[in-house]
Amino acid sequence: MRNLKYTDKKLKKTSFLKNVVVLVVAHIFIKIIGVINKIYLTNKQGFGDEGNAIYSSAFQIYALFLTISSIGIPNAVSKIVSERLAVGDSKGAHKTFKIAIITFGMLGFALSLFLFVFADTMAEQWLQIPEAKLSLLALSPAIFFTSITAVIKGYFNGRENLNIGANSQTIEQIFRTILTITLIEFIAQTTGFDTRVMAGGAAVATTLSEIICFVYLYRYYASVKKEIANEIRRSVNYKYKGIRKTIKEILKVSIPMSIGPIISGINRNIDSLTIIRGLKKFMTETEAKLEYGILSGKIDTLVSFPLSFNSAFTSTLIPVVSSAKASNDLELASRKIRFSMLISVLIGIPSTVGMIVFAKPILELLFPNQPSGELLLQISSVSITFIMLNQNINAILHGLGKTVVPTIILVAGSTIKLILNTILVQINPNEFIFGGTAGAAFSTVVSHIFTCLVSMYMVKKYVNIKFGIVDIIKPTLATLMMGICMIFTYKKLLCIFSGKLCILLTLLIAITIYFLVILILKVFLEDEIKKIPFGTSIYNVLKVLRVYK
Fold first, then answer.
1. Do 331 and 460 form a contact (C-beta atoms < 8 A)?
2. How confident is the model at residue 329 (pLDDT cuts 50, 70, 90)?
3. Inside any domain, residue 384
4. Is the torsion defined by CA of 69, 72, 74, 77 positive or negative?
5. Which span out of 208-217, 238-247, 399-408 was modeled with the highest average pLDDT?
6. Range from 71-75, 173-177, 214-218, 451-455 carrying the lowest mean pLDDT
7. Read out DSSP for 34-89?
8. DSSP of 305-342, one letter per residue?
């Protein structure tokens, strides 16, 4: 049983809902800062879509290496630590943490060195974008620091103290944006708007921000080290395990958890490795880079923004499900799983509809100097709900220890993506609407739909999820009503206000209408309403209106 009571406020664990709220706020803020960063770069003279192509292609290679060294680590360490703490073994949890730091720090250093040495080969032969070499060189040191920070985040996530990870991500994103703007402005003034160097400057900003994130996490750990030592002395149920056995245990959990993200990283690199090659069949290399820059820069940024709401639930589900499994209380986990998936649908469906209907106004609002990409945004946005649901399902499977299942499904989805990319990207879009870059966007959607549906089928074999067709129909009806109101409101406001102000007011009104409709349709159960911000007050009003009895 978990009967340890932390005496220090810094070590005190937080509830599932509080963790979710903290992470939702943090992820939204991080995404907003990230969008601001992307808006600045895309609209900056000398950077634009071409700069996005150079930086994004290098970043995807970097992200793949980062995935190998650290992406699966926070969840793996979190899972093991939460299981240790659930039975009162604080000493074993901390030993796992220390060994993980050394193991993955060494791995991160090796991969940083590899990327630095082979940057030229990757830029010219893999990406076929020689200008990306400078960005790859600048990004290489970040792998080492991120590998270590991933372990620290995982340790505190396992303690159900997600504030630390959220704070570090916020600090990292703020400094990345500040450093990016500072360096880009300096480079623009000194190099005459050299796109290659400006992309390299953005990469340097990324690396520096990762170092700052590491410093923050290290200082926090040092500040609570004494309290952790006191807790370890009170540890119960400790079972000695040698270093080799501990490493084997960590790898046994982290490797299956990492395989999925590695495949996802490979999946993301499918575009960087196939789009420019395929587009050069019917357009120039410069035009091909611009097309890839539109998809990898603006479109990916906008599509990934709604996912920030979902990341909080994904991060909290793994330790919650793991702990519930260890204590044999899957009923509690089932309720939280249902709530998480419902939120994903409630956010995903209207996000898709909003981006499809207002793709052009949104791009013109955010990227006035580079507004192209309407069709790509409309196609890509279809995948939002499926990505969200799949993130939750994968977290559930990992928490249950079924790490191989999502990996196999993801491999199948990536294979579908690769095959469709290879075929569709080489087709001129003048001959087929889903040809060229639109073909890459379409293949991504098909891949996510496939992985989501198969994953949903598999997870129902292991846990009773009280999430049915009604939970999808009601949000769909609310979205339909919202969409009709959006179109009507936009046309009316367009006669009064400017285009930019019009779209902002329309989105604000649409969100309000959507929220009211989902309350009227009783999408939430009574106890779930009270979990949302100001939920108790909302519930009392609904009782007065006799929506709930």
1. no
2. low
3. yes
4. negative
5. 208-217
6. 71-75
7. HHHHHHHHHHSTTTHHHHHHHHHHHHHHHHHHHIIIIITHHHHHHHHHHHHHHTT-
8. TTHHHHHHHHHHHHHHHHHHHHTT-HHHHHHHHHHHHH
pLDDT at 440: 94
Residues 6+ apart with CB under 8 A from 241: 92, 95, 249
Q: For residue 77, give both structure tokens.
A: 């360490």
- The residues, ordered by sequence, that sit 6+ positions from 419 with a Cβ below 8 Å of its Cβ are none
Calpha distance 443→421 (Å, rounded): 6
Location of structure tokens 């946005």: 381
Task: Let me know if residue 412 belongs to a domain.
Answer: yes
In a domain, 313, yes or no: yes
- Is residue 475 assigned to a domain? no
pLDDT at 529 over 70: yes
Alpha helices in 358-469 (DSSP H): 359-366, 374-380, 384-399, 404-424, 437-459
Cβ count near 338 (within 10 Å): 18
Domain holding 109, by residue range, is 13-467
Number of domains in the chain: 1
The pair of structure tokens assigned to 264 is 């996802």
Per-residue model confidence (pLDDT) at position 260 = 65
Does the structure show a pLDDT above 90 at 379?
yes
